Amino acid sequence: MQENHSSYAGRWVAKVRGRIVAQGGTPEQALRASQQTRHKEKPEIVYMPHSFSFHPLLESIKNILPADQELYLVGGAVRDMLLNRISPDLDFALPSNGIAFARKVSNELKADFLPLDEERDTGRVVVTQEDGSRIFLDFAAYRGEDLEADLRARDFTINALAFDMHTEAILDPLDGSTDLRAKVIRACSPLSITDDPVRILRAIRMAAAFGFQIEKSTRAQLKESASALTRVSPERLRDEIFKILQGPKPDASMRALEMLGTLPYLMPELVELKGVEQSLPHVYDVWSHTLSVLACLEDILSAMRIGYTAEQTKDMLTGLLTLRLGRYREQVAEHFAKSLNVDRTMRSLLFFAALYHDVSKPDTKTVEENGRIRFFDHDIQGAEVAAERGHAFNLSNDEIHRLHTIIKHHMRIHSFATRLEGDKQTPSRKAIYRFFRDSGEAGIDLILLALADVRATYATNLTQETWVAYLDIARILLENYWERPEEVVAPPRLLDGHDLMKELNIEAGPLIGQLLEAIRENQAAGKIENKEQALTFAREEVAKGFTGEA
């Protein structure tokens, strides 16, 4: 009867007279295992092939690889191969001369090169693809005396994998492929987390990304090492946080980080949100509400993705969302395809804004005589707090400005929806103009955040009437932004400051800018259509003692 070898796929096996007698993650492990029972026999050590997704760039690397150059693909890229995923970046390990070899690869691929870490002999090759996206190829000398030592010093067993670029065999000294099949995240050693505390965040991110469980003793290591995050640079913490927010289940990930006690060392402003009560219609305290907003925002963006239809959900409220706003899927996709920073996405920045949108509620909480809890100006103060965190994380100025804008104005759509539901009053053209004047492209983010915010506020108590009011406001705003921009959102300028000074015989000063803005508002309202009307309006306003105040 023929032996079934499928269970050995991706493993090294020891064969004696054609029969498998032992196995291991590396040739050495297979040999040692066989010697325990067959110490007098000399086994044949063979790699049992494993099917996987081959990254397109690997073939290019193989073609320029000298026959005598030892080179291994390592870490997450190998893990992703075994999961039949294409990794966005590739890490390679070699005995020495990582920077020199990276330079050679960059020359062959006609790609960009930079010495990433001279102390660790690590060079980076940046391959820019036709769509403008970039793939990073990092080449590093072994961290240890050999490849196995390098792998054992890594974070988690599912990342302690290597792929021989010559033989296409997998080396797996810590049996990470078994943990991969079991969907378990396990630290490589008792020192894995303390050696690099940012691995706490990486574990949470990977658990969410793959739907894996963190092994019990590893989870204990994460919690015990939380305070060590103070040793990690703000940039590395930022990068991991934004990767978490870009990935699936950001709400569960943030809850896990809070339970592990990491928030005081990551984003201490958020610690105070827990347990802060809110009046109805809020059903959660501020922290639970914030996490719910993240979950609802993820659901809304999923429902607004290209290809999603109302038939794909049994949730009536989501079905209404797709029916009323579904025609804007492509525009929403284009909005999130843009970036304010090449290393971070618009989506992750919006989720960061959602995480901080109520950050100042603890500091602005008041309780009225009737027991109602209010948070006056929490949006204004929260924008400043979030901007400070943005500076601490070294976000770009554009990102901080977008973050500040979203949080500062996040209550405005709630006001629109309240007036529509209560008084049947839709936003005026002037109100729509002012909304986008103040928010710009962030207006799209504000609309999506408001939808998530109201769902998280009411939870299962949200009525169809309230939800439809919000959807109608969203539709009106998006319709004007994308379908009538020159009429309402950004009317063409009919005249400039020189025209006003010449025609009205007035001097340069703040009055000029205020008049120009008043003209544009009235253009948006449909009251001014040409230059003559604009000048007539300006003359009349000046004659009445125009001050520029709304």
Give a structural overview.
The structure is a single chain. The protein has about 550 residues and is α+β, with helices and mostly antiparallel strands. It folds into 4 domains: about 5-45, no CATH class; about 55-240, Beta Polymerase, domain 2, CATH 3.30.460; about 265-490, no CATH class; about 495-545, no CATH class. The chain is about 50% helix and about 10% strand. The strands form 4 sheets. Strands 6-7-8-5-4-9-10 form a 7-stranded mixed beta sheet. The longest helix has 20 residues, at about 465-485. The relative contact order is 0.05.
Categorize the overall geometry.
elongated
**Total individual domains:** 4
The count of strands amounts to 14
- Strand proportion, as a percent range, falls in 5-15%
First and last CA, distance: 90 Å
Gyration radius, to the nearest Å? 29 Å
- Give the overall average pLDDT: 92
Oligomer: single chain
| Main beta sheet | 7 strands, mixed
Which regions are unreliable across 5 or more consecutive residues at pLDDT < 50?
none
Computed structural class: alpha+beta
**Helix segment tally:** 27
Percent helix range = 40-55%
Strand order of the largest sheet: 6-7-8-5-4-9-10
